[in-house]
Amino acid sequence: MCSLRSAFTYFLDVTTPPSQELPHMLATQASSDMDKKRLGLLATWLMKNGRKT
């Protein structure tokens, strides 16, 4: 496990759009029900309108 800061610094590529799976993976780690819901909505929107991975 790593901190959010380490994840953004060393592991996430912020120069490309997120994959469709990223919001689903983040939702599984969210502690807030509202965050889980919003990430689920984002994932659904990406599947319908976003880039295909």
Automatic annotation (TrEMBL):
SUPFAM superfamilies: Riboflavin synthase domain-like (SSF63380). InterPro entries: NADPH_Cyt_P450_Rdtase_alpha (IPR023173), Riboflavin_synthase-like_b-brl (IPR017938). It comes from the Eukaryota. One of its GO terms (molecular function) is oxidoreductase activity. This is Uncharacterized protein.
